[in-house]
Amino acid sequence: MAEQIIIQPGADKPNQDVFAETLQRLAETDRNIIAVTSDSRGSGKLVPFGKKFPNQIVEVGIAEQNLVGVAAGLGSCDKKVFAVSPACFLTARSLEQIKNDICYSDHPVTVVGISAGVSYGALGSTHHSLHDFAVLRAINNITIVVPADNYETEKATELAAASDKPVYLRFGKKVMPSLKTDNSDDFMFGKGRVIAEGNDVAIIANGETVYPAVQAAEVLKEQGIHATVVSMHTIKPLDTALLAALAAKCNAIITVEEHSVNGGLGEACASWLLQNGYAKPFKIMGIPDEYTVTGSQVEILNHYGISKEGIAKEVMHLISK
Predict the structure, then answer these.
(1) Edge-to-edge strand order for the sheet containing 193-196?
(2) In order of start, what are the domains of the chain with their CATH numbers?
(3) Is the pLDDT of residue 91 over 60?
């Protein structure tokens, strides 16, 4: 039967804040944890961390390539390194360093993209991170994780600190309600979380798009349509066993992401399903391949239909075909 969804709006924080608090908690008992920032300890909520552990934080200034190089060097010395910088710059300016210095050199560094997606809003396309899933998916030896809420953020940070492999964590700036299920301890890399269950359609989302997907499921329920909602927090490795189960039981599948429709969660799911013989009505919701409109994060997402009403509308259209 469907799991019980417990939503606690107003009781939670931006995922970036929870990441910083969790990292500080872990550093209290593990002095090998090091944060490296590129003039981003403020936006990364790491000012308290730096005050408490001045010997466990490195500031390189606005120099993302140096950030990754320094992080890789520390990782080679058995430090547990978190390289924190705005996702739009971190995964573009320093992509070569992420590829060669961290992934191909197999250093235990967690690359942390903050203010991701369209979190920077009206600062415009130069500050939007709509490419990071696509470029990082093409690089061998990196786990890509996009937590949906504070619970997933805390668990992802803990797992990253315990990992001896490269990890990419992606966080936005919005306050996120907790999406708690009956299974209160069900987070692990590579395994999607089923937030709600239904047999008519599967809505697969990640990051800050999971909550509007849950809201859309409630709208659809009023129309007699029952949706499974999945937080597919790990894009790589993808939970293909869950994908297969969803394709077997649901009549249609729709993916939702705060990323370009090219190269992200949707294309990862579509590629695996098609190559493994699953033919179902399928829709990718994300940011289209165009000059992105300017506005706040909410205004941009609403413009592209990434809202409870927009997702519900796309589901209705998809299953009517």
Answers:
(1) 193-196, 227-231, 201-205, 252-260, 282-287
(2) 12-170 (3.40.50.970), 179-319 (3.40.50.920)
(3) yes
